[in-house]
Design a protein that fits this description.
The complex is a heterodimer of chains A (121) and B (537). Chain A has helices spanning 5-22, 27-46, 67-97, 106-119. With 121 residues, chain A is mostly helical. Chain A has one domain (5-119): Helix Hairpins (Orthogonal Bundle), CATH 1.10.287. In chain A, helix 2 (27-46) packs antiparallel against helix 3 (67-97). With 537 residues, chain B is mostly helical. Chain B has 23 helices and 2 strands. Chain B has a two-stranded antiparallel sheet with strand order 1-2. In chain B, helix 1 runs antiparallel to helix 4 (111-130) and helix 3 runs antiparallel to helix 4. Chain B is globular and about 70 Å long. The chains are: A mainly alpha (121), B mainly alpha (537).
């Protein structure tokens, strides 16, 4: 099986960009990052099968592998559903806090206070 | 008999649809949800007995020949996991219904989403256990995770959204890693059927196999909350409502462990065992040290949950039939015990309005029934003989000693230390919440000051700042504490059922451990599974 370099570079770029976006605290950026990585993963799935052949109709000739396409379809649907949920969650977060960043965990803050409190003496 | 296999997935899914249709009629919705899970439990018990007698049940969906079709397989391990998980989901559902009733939430909008989401999660869990190919496993993970996002953020309060966001993002990342691993495995082998893969992965170059295996292990490790991928769990679980936390604690991490067991026995037998042992040790110790430091029951229990994932990993890493048998037994034990503890913690919260240890006290006197319900699974978790936790740990330690090697011996020692620390953490809860006299009541005007000689004496200096900061927003909680609200029969009954199931694991330890032994034989000799799926060749 040969791999198209353009596709490989594209997948790498999408993953890199997606990871960069997901590292943000801003939930909207995280959503965008997730969608970008999702596309990268879909492309990876697409390139995993032997492409370029005819669809499976009749008997003879080399055929394109239909399985990756079935997998991508499922994965796209899942990405869509999860993105919708994330959007709803981001909106709810915005309603409550008027910002799109994840607030600090109160328990983590408490631990941090303990630590700095102990360290200052 | 084959028809039972897809039914265990289809029934909760159809039930979820029906429950969604009935969202305006809470009474009918509850009836649908409970009866679906009850029937499913019966079917799965039948299936368990059948599989134990006749070997794995296999179904090829759509009637396609073996490696092409989407395959559903249930061997002994899968059947046992399904029975235990459905038992737990049913009990938690009854508990949730009773709680909703008691709290008068029946008219709230979110509660109408609760039952469908809960059933969809049950379907996802069942599907994960019977999935015969990797992609189907991925889909079932997504089903149960998406349902869990909804359950975790139910009601959309500030606190739940805050803790839900990291949970969702971490789960998404692990799903992406899993999906990429699937794409690469398909590119390397041309199949995703696990039985088919078992043969083909062995022929891959060693370097490639290591990459694929580590990607799968990382993806499943995040789901199972294995250190260092466990930080999300104690952060997100405690804020959810009590039944949701209980069912998550019982099931979701165990699905990850189940997938790790499959990876390590079927797909890549034996690889990475030393690494897994070290990671298992770190999971145990770091998890339990976190638990010891907690001052809130649900957070403390979440840390013990992480810690005991280490024991499961230990058995998988040993990889001998003996080790796997102990793991299978321990998984069943841990699902039941951890769920029971979270349900009991929910009851504590229901009665007193808080789960903070420095606010609780004298529960053994005010609520003796609850004390028993907490004490039994607590001792069970701590591994006190004669409970099943002790039996499972002894099995693991014996398997570790039989393997020999420095790592295994260190792991056995670490495991023993972890159980002692677990006992310490859990006895601390017992001593504070149940045994000591009730801390002096704090009144609104006094908030911010160290109050009551008994409470101040128990609290160490270093805990004070956090306590003081917290105390300001608690007057209404303090009002409810001590009034000892009565416990609804459904909540107590459901908790009791899970506690009794945990005890049954102790009383019937012989036959159940025998079953775990047979399941482990099947795991360490994957040819049975492979022949069942692909047919004799």
């Amino acid at each position: 099986m040969t791999v198209n370099v353009v596709v490989a570079v594209l997948i790498g770029g999408l993953f890199a960009g997606g990871v960069y976006l997901m590292l943000s605290r801003n939930l909207l950026r995280v959503l965008l990052g997730f969608m970008v990585i999702g596309h990268g993963a879909n492309l990876l799935l697409l390139s995993s099968g032997v492409g370029g052949g005819a669809p499976i109709v009749g008997q003879d000739g080399t055929h394109a592998d239909p399985i990756p396409q079935a997998l991508i379809l499922t994965s796209i649907v899942i990405t869509l559903a999860v993105s919708c949920f994330l959007l709803a969650m981001i909106y709810r977060n915005y309603q409550l806090t008027r910002q799109s960043e994840v607030p600090d965990d109160p328990d983590d803050v408490a631990i941090e206070e303990l630590r700095t409190g102990a360290g200052s003496e | 008999m084959i028809a039972l296999l897809p039914l265990s997935v289809m029934m909760p899914l159809l039930g979820a649809g029906l429950a969604l249709l009935l969202s305006r009629r809470p009474r009918a919705q509850r009836a649908v949800a409970i009866s679906v899970l009850a029937v499913q439990l019966v079917l799965e018990v039948v299936m368990l007995v059948q599989i134990d007698a006749d070997g794995p049940i296999v179904m090829h969906i759509g009637g396609w020949p073996a490696p092409l079709a989407i395959t559903l397989v249930a061997d002994r391990l899968a059947a046992l996991m399904m029975v235990v998980s459905t038992l737990v989901t049913l009990a938690v559902l009854v508990y949730a219904v009773a709680q909703g009733h008691a709290d008068g939430e029946a008219t709230d909008a979110p509660i109408s989403v609760f039952h469908p989401a809960f059933l969809i999660m049950a379907a996802g869990v069942s599907n994960a256990f019977v999935a015969g190919d990797l992609f189907n496993l991925y889909v079932s993970f997504e089903i149960l995770l998406t349902a869990s996002y909804v359950l975790l953020t139910l009601g959309g309060t500030m606190e739940r959204i805050r803790s839900g966001a990291p949970y969702v993002v971490v789960a998404l990342v692990s799903s992406i890693i899993f999906l990429s691993a699937i794409a690469m495995i398909y590119a390397a082998t041309g199949t995703l059927n696990m039985a088919d893969l078992a043969g083909r992965l062995a022929d891959l170059p060693a370097g490639l196999a290591v990459v694929l295996q580590s990607m799968l292990l990382i993806a499943f490790g995040v789901k199972a909350a294995v250190w260092p991928m466990s930080a999300w769990l104690p952060d997100s679980y405690p804020t959810a409502s009590a039944p949701v936390t209980a069912v998550f604690a019982g099931l979701l991490t165990k699905v990850g462990i189940y997938a790790i067991i499959r990876t390590q026995t079927l797909l890549f037998p034996g690889g990475f065992s030393t690494l897994l042992m070290i990671v298992g040790l770190a999971t145990m110790l770091i998890g339990i040290l976190g638990a010891v430091a907690q001052n809130e029951i649900k957070r403390l229990l979440s840390f013990t949950l992480v810690s005991h994932i280490g024991f499961l990993l230990f058995g998988v890493a040993i990889g001998t039939p003996q080790g796997l048998a102990a793991t299978v037994f321990y998984v069943a034990h841990h699902i039941l015990v951890q769920t029971a503890l979270f349900l009991a913690a929910g009851l504590i919260e229901h009665i007193t309005g808080t789960t903070k240890l420095d606010k609780l006290g004298a529960l053994a006197r005010t609520a003796p029934a609850l004390a028993i319900l907490f004490f039994i699974p607590a001792m069970n978790l701590g591994g006190v003989p004669p409970f099943s936790g002790f039996i499972g740990k002894v099995g693991l330690f014996e398997a570790g000693l039989a393997t020999g090697g420095v790592t295994a011996l260190v792991l056995v020692a670490g495991g023993a230390l972890t159980s002692l620390l677990t006992l310490y953490a859990i006895v601390r809860v017992w001593g504070r919440a149940f045994w000591r006299p009730a801390p002096a009541r704090e009144h609104d005007g006094m908030a911010g000051l160290p109050v009551g000689p008994s409470a101040a004496g128990e609290r160490s200096d270093r805990e004070r700042p956090a306590g003081r900061r917290r105390r300001r927003r608690l007057p209404q909680e303090i009002e409810t504490r001590g009034d000892a609200r009565s416990m609804p029969v459904g909540m107590v009954g459901a908790t009791l059922a899970v506690v009794l199931a945990g005890l049954a694991l102790t009383v019937a330890a012989g036959p159940i451990y025998g079953f775990a032994d047979r399941a482990a034989q099947g795991l360490s000799n994957p040819s049975v599974y492979i022949t069942a799926v692909l047919g004799a060749s």
